[in-house]
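Input set for joint prediction.
Command: fold jointly, output tokens.
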Amino acid sequence: MPARPRSPRTIAPAARASALLVWFAQHRRPLPWRRRPTPYRTWIAEVLLQQTRVAQAAPYFERFVGEFPTVRALADAPLERVLKVWQGAGYYARARNLSAAARLLARERNGELPSTVAGLEELPGVGPYIARAIAAIAFGVPTVALEANGLRVGARWIRASGDVRRGPVRRRIEAALATALGTNPPGPFNEAVMELGETICRPVAPQCERCPVAFGCRAYLELDDPGSVPIARRAPRRPRVRAAVVALADRRGRWFVQRRPPRGLLGGLWEFPGGKIRPGETAAHAAARELFEETGVRSAALEYVGRIRHAYSHFSVDLHLYRASARARPAAAPDRRWVTAAGLRRLALPKATEKALALLERRDRASRDSGSRRGRTGV
Ligand code: SF4
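tokens >
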């Protein structure tokens, strides 16, 4: 790293913005939402990027706008289809809100997004950050959209101390960025700040020697370790959930699945019957209990298929998978179905259910290949 000049406070904010915009014009990544930008595409991208990293968001974005290229196409699609196309991106409330907002826009605004921060904030699922990002990027509204990257970059520019998510510190950072924005084009400025945070001003070990605004960054100029700003918050431990599920098959080899309630965790997705293993309970007992509670089926023989692990954003799950044959069939209903494996794949599924289905199919293949009979575990 080159020797640093130590006269940081004389840097004009406009100089930072100019240097940043020149750098962005030369280095902006060709991300899919930057091609053929429209307010709709910006909206979808910002919703995805709120909880998903850029590299992961790109294929989901392509798939989503490929399937629903306009507000009207999204508004016309059944929610079930929207959830299916969103599958794997996580935080399914985002997909439900996109669907609800598209219907509202189609009904009340001829499919057009509002161009103001206040108007955008009235849409389901659009909070202050997304509203400002869309307003700045799609409509040129002079505002600062402050997400994690912007907070980190701004905190380093002004060498903010304290928790950047708290009001006073956050307001100082926002004011510093707004001053730097000045009369510059709001879309490129906001995107440039985010891009700098994602590619150079990383949370750990920022690459200051490559940074276009190092000359105006107090953390760089005044500290041995610019990455020590902002103060890192310890990530909360992700709780681990133990659960048991049962793939219940009828004589035709179809699986019984049910849809989760429309709101809340994994809302509206389809899964096998099952639930949490209670303290002191075995996985097999929990599987039998959950099967009976949710379907009314008492199965004398549950076959253990295997364990699946999956980490969701807020918790990880250890899923013990069993299979059983249904003699008395639970009745189908709008939220309960009998489906083939192919039919199950067409439904919107949580990742753990996708893994469960893959495991069932692997076991079946192995069983066919070896010609062996499956053992049974009584409960
Ligand atoms: S100089 Fe370093 S710490 Fe400052 S904005 Fe650039 S990359 Fe971030």
